[in-house]
Specification:
This protein has 130 residues and is of the alpha+beta class. The protein is built from 4 helices and 6 strands, in the order E-H-E-E-H-E-E-E-H-H. Strand 4 and strand 5 form a beta hairpin. It is elongated, with a radius of gyration of 29 Å. The termini are far apart. InterPro entries: NOP8_RRM, Nucleotide-bd_a/b_plait_sf, RBD_domain_sf, RRM_dom.
């Protein structure tokens, strides 16, 4: 029986500057199915790479995720020391989720009624203005 697999987003910090998407995909595919790798390089004022980290989407069972984190976390690999965590939800994904939930919760039928006037009101008003 296969374990229940869910897609998780991992933050991988402490990467070396020479790291590639293929390297990360090969490293993490041992534990689950890697669907997306995003490498981010922060640079200092002079444009020199200062900090390299990545986000990885991986479809993995909970037991394999724990194994991945215990095996790879705090290990030296390709010029860096890996720091692996479950990633926080990205700002854009959170905004989409919030707007979707607000939109569905605010679907209320709005009915606008014209005010009814008494039939003599308009005639009396007309006579006063004559």
């Amino acid at each position: 029986m296969k374990a229940n697999r869910e897609t998780k987003r991992l933050f991988v910090g402490g990467l070396g500057q020479s790291i590639s998407e293929v390297d990360l995909q090969n490293q993490f595919s041992r534990f689950g199915e890697v669907s997306d790798v995003e490498i981010i390089t922060r640079k200092d004022d002079q444009g020199n790479p200062q900090k390299v980290f990545a986000y990885i989407n991986i479809r993995v069972a909970e037991s394999d995720l724990r194994k991945c984190m215990s095996v790879l976390n705090n290990t030296k690999w390709k010029g860096g020391t890996l720091q692996i965590q479950i990633a926080k939800e990205s700002f854009l994904h959170r905004m989409v989720r919030q707007r979707t939930s607000q939109h569905t919760s605010s679907l209320v039928l709005t009915v606008r009624l014209k005010p009814r006037r008494h039939p003599f009101w308009s005639r009396a008003n007309w006579e006063r203005n004559q």
